[in-house]
Design a protein that fits this description.
Length: 474
């Protein structure tokens, strides 16, 4: 969409406000709104100024001036505002006009540019399956003398005996019993459909939605794959629309990986493939899972670099509450066709040559999608360039249920890091693959590690309620 087309859209739809957005290191969107009457061609040439020192991990107060440079291709109408508002994503530049090397969106674009310089392919496609919970009530507090959280859902398995409903209507979702039941057990069909309608109006191609495995309103909506940066843009749009549609229904949505103890967490399985001038490069008929050797080497790069990669794809302390055995969590760094207990799965049902892809199941939605997708691509490309063979390294294929293997057999399988600190240590030791072609800078990686270590420390030094169970009577 050209600048003129955006200006025409503003007039045609009687837009009152233009909301310019960028994304910080955390992956959360930030925004500044301008009156539509103040937006003209110069706005798209000169950008929109903001204070970079107020964004964690960006700049100090002595270098705070930064500029959002709008990307007109991302424009869509906000479905929630009372005053007609147009949303536009932006890249971040310095006042000198240079691309800011800590801007996650620019890093995603540099990863796409790097792919084209390798001669391997011309385009990488991504499709995330970002799961979430829809709760009715969320309360939490952390202080000197108290620490707790409490969530509730009308369909939660723990509410089979609740009287406050004015007559309990039963049909609650059992623990681990929420995968695709029909109503009345699935009470959230309409809210998910409304989310999908709004997403479609905002430009996403919706493929399906359904209730997920966990109790208490776990859900999933799938949208069509696209190129790396566009998919990251779409994921931010997805999370924004899901959260605000839930709010319209008097509910709250969260993409937190593990909000409930004792049931499945929410992942963000990411499907990936590479094309060259429109031709798929991951397909080879008759090979294992119909995968080409290039795809096998891509998997090799993902699995070889996985400990470091996970610092970016699972960048929260809560991520590692999900990455434990027993809850369909992909903790095993192996690959397999159709096996959901492996970190890398190759879908084999109803797959065409163009649909041939790999699925990295470890990530979750605390990840900044621009950074996560870029890092995955860089790991895969490193595997292709170095011909990393996951078969030779003992990464599979494993086509049996790994959770049912003996302890001795499991001991031979490499697992994901156990904590965020372990993942950050791995990233500190293995980051060279990210800096190829200047996609990630070492300054960015060092800054990112420092920021995330600070988050981990905030959790580590706080008293956990369960410590009272374990140690109060010592």
């Amino acid at each position: 969409m050209s600048v003129q087309n955006v200006l025409n859209l503003i007039k045609e739809k009687n837009i009152e406000w233009v909301d310019f957005r960028f994304v910080g290191l955390s992956g959360k969107a930030q925004h500044i709104s301008l009156p539509a009457t103040e937006v003209d061609e110069e706005t798209f040439v000169n950008g929109v100024a903001f204070d970079g020192s107020s964004i964690p991990g960006f700049r100090g107060i002595e270098q705070s001036d930064m500029v959002m440079m709008p990307d007109t291709e991302t424009a869509y109408i906000d479905p929630f505002t009372a005053h007609p508002t147009l949303i536009i994503m932006s890249n971040i530049h310095t006042p000198d006009g240079d691309r800011y090397d800590r801007d996650p969106r620019s890093i995603a674009q540099k990863a796409e540019e790097y792919l084209q310089t390798t001669g391997i392919g011309t385009q990488a496609f991504f499709a995330p399956e970002s799961e979430f919970f829809i709760f009715d009530d969320v309360r939490y507090e952390n202080g000197m003398n108290k620490s707790y959280f409490e969530v509730d859902s009308e369909e939660a398995g723990w509410n089979t005996g609740r009287k406050e409903e004015g007559g309990n209507l039963a049909y609650k979702v059992p623990v681990k019993g929420g995968y695709v039941p029909v109503a009345p057990i699935d009470s959230q069909q309409d809210i998910r459909s409304e989310m999908c309608n709004k997403l479609a109006d905002a430009g996403l191609r919706i493929e399906r939605h359904h209730h997920e495995v966990a109790t208490a309103g776990q859900a999933e909506i799938n949208f069509r794959f696209d190129s790396l940066t566009k998919t990251a843009d779409n994921l931010l749009k997805y999370k924004y629309i899901v959260a605000n549609t839930a709010r319209e229904y008097g509910k709250v949505a969260t993409f937190m990986p593990k909000p409930l103890f004792g049931d499945n967490g929410s992942g963000m399985h990411v499907h990936m493939s590479i094309f060259n001038e429109g031709e798929p490069l991951f397909y080879e008929k008759g090979a294992y899972a119909n995968l080409s050797e290039l795809a096998i080497h891509y998997i090799g790069g993902i699995l070889y670099h996985a400990p470091a990669l996970i610092a970016i794809t699972n960048p929260s302390t809560n991520s590692f509450k999900r990455l434990v055995p027993g809850y369909e969590a992909p903790v095993n760094l192996v690959f397999s066709k159709g096996n959901r207990s492996a970190a890398v799965r190759i879908p084999i049902a109803a797959v065409t040559p163009k649909g041939c892809r790999i699925e990295f199941r470890t990530p979750d939605s605390t990840a900044n999608p621009y950074l996560a997708f870029a890092a995955m691509l860089m790991a895969g490309l490193d595997g292709i360039k170095k011909k990393i063979d996951p078969r030779a390294l003992g990464y599979g294929p494993f086509d049996t249920n790994i959770y049912e293997m003996s302890d001795a057999e499991k001991a031979e399988i490499r697992s994901v890091p156990g904590t965020l600190e372990e993942a950050l240590d791995a990233l500190a030791a293995d980051s060279e693959f990210l800096t190829e072609g200047g996609v990630f800078t070492q300054d960015f990686i060092d800054n990112y590690i420092e920021l995330k270590r600070g988050e981990a420390k905030q959790v580590a030094i706080r008293i956990h309620p369960h410590e009272y169970n374990l140690y109060f009577d010592c």
